[in-house]
């Protein structure tokens, strides 16, 4: 199937009709679509996290139950976070690097945990995927089957519901992957959790490997990650209840969200933004537990004109090409520090 032949109708855009009530026409529509094709590429977002990986693993199992002959899980970027690496290894997730030619060689293309081509993925911006399953707030989502529910706390909860309302056998590794994805996305059911996550956990728990879940949760982080978190702690700038920190150049991209989570525990702090330069890109992670702050909207408002940014009310992130600031990747740390000061002031101005 070519790019231009992909239909652009929306089956379930932002609705909540696919509930675990055993009577979901929309889930049936997904199965009908899968059963009429022989190959599927499940495209993860860049640097996929447990919610994305668990959802991809579940969609792979559903596709195989629908007799799809070949299923590929694709991702761009890297899988470097210690828990993400452990998840891929221990659950034997066969994820391979994304390449454009893979889109042309498969009949169906699915996005999980993201929804817009070219935004936090390597897919060309003019491409229209066949299947989109996501929980992030986005506009202009198109596809043959779209299930986007921003009122749900994790994409894995949506996939768990698909399994619950069908007769697909729930494999231990799939249940474990989904449950771990939900736990990580909600920080152990403490952030952005909804009734859907509790329902999914209740359904998945009997099928999951609890000992393996514990091993995934206890995955050790590297000394370099600890150093980056320490750098974020040392460089913090606090104004009121907001904290912004610049870790400078780092190879530990996944340390940024960990630092943002860690610093949110500081007394008097309700919003954190941590950023650093990874290669030729500024990566940003943001968190908030202030009911007055929609940190996803703040990130979009602050950086959409110079990069990709967005997320949820309590958790968000973004990327900015370093070249936009006139700084090349091999230039001095002093110049990158000036970029950091610019970003810091921009964040505080937006929060104000």
TrEMBL record:
Q: Which domain of life is it from?
A: Archaea
Gene Ontology molecular functions: 3'(2'),5'-bisphosphate nucleotidase activity
Q: Where is the DHHA1 domain?
A: 241-342
Q: Which UniProt keywords apply?
A: Hydrolase
Which residue windows does the record flag with biased composition (Polar residues)?
A: 1-21
Q: Does the keyword Zinc apply?
A: no
Q: Which Gene3D superfamilies match?
A: 3.10.310.30, inorganic pyrophosphatase (n-terminal core)
Q: Where is the DDH domain?
A: 41-182
Which EC number(s) does UniProt give?
3.1.3.7
Stretches for region Disordered: 1-23
**Catalytic EC class:** hydrolase
Q: What is this protein called?
A: Bifunctional oligoribonuclease/PAP phosphatase NrnA
Q: Which organism is it from?
A: Halomarina halobia
């Amino acid at each position: 199937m070519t790019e231009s032949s992909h239909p652009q109708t929306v089956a379930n855009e932002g609705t909540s009709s696919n509930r675990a009530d055993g009577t979901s026409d929309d889930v049936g529509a997904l199965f009908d679509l899968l059963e009429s094709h022989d190959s599927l590429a499940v495209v993860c977002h860049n640097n996929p996290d447990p919610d994305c990986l668990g959802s991809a693993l579940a969609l792979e199992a559903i596709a195989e139950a629908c007799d799809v002959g070949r299923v590929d899980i694709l991702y761009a970027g890297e899988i470097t976070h210690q828990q993400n690496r452990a998840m891929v290894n221990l659950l034997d997730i066969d994820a391979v690097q994304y390449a454009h030619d893979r889109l042309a060689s498969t009949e169906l293309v699915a996005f999980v945990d993201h929804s817009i081509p070219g935004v936090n993925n390597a897919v060309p911006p003019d491409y229209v995927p066949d299947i989109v399953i996501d929980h992030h707030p986005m506009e202009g989502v198109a596809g043959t089957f779209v299930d986007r529910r921003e009122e749900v706390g994790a994409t894995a909860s949506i996939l768990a519901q698909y399994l619950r309302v069908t007769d697909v056998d729930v494999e231990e590794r799939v249940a474990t992957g989904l449950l771990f994805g939900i736990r990580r996305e909600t920080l152990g059911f403490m952030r952005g959790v909804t009734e859907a996550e509790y329902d999914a956990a209740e359904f998945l728990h009997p099928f999951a490997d609890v000992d393996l879940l514990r091993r995934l949760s206890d995955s050790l982080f590297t000394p370099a990650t600890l150093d980056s978190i320490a750098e974020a702690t040392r460089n913090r700038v606090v104004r009121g209840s907001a904290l912004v920190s610049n870790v400078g150049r780092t190879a530990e991209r996944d340390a940024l969200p960990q630092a943002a989570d860690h610093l949110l525990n500081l007394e008097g702090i309700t919003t954190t933004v941590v950023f650093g330069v990874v290669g030729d890109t500024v990566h940003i992670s943001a968190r908030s537990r202030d009911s007055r702050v929609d940190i996803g909207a703040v990130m979009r408002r602050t950086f959409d004109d110079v990069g990709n940014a967005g997320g949820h009310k309590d958790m968000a992130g973004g990327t900015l090409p370093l070249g936009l600031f006139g700084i090349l990747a091999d230039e001095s740390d002093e110049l990158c520090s000036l970029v950091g000061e610019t970003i810091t002031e921009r964040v505080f101005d937006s929060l104000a």
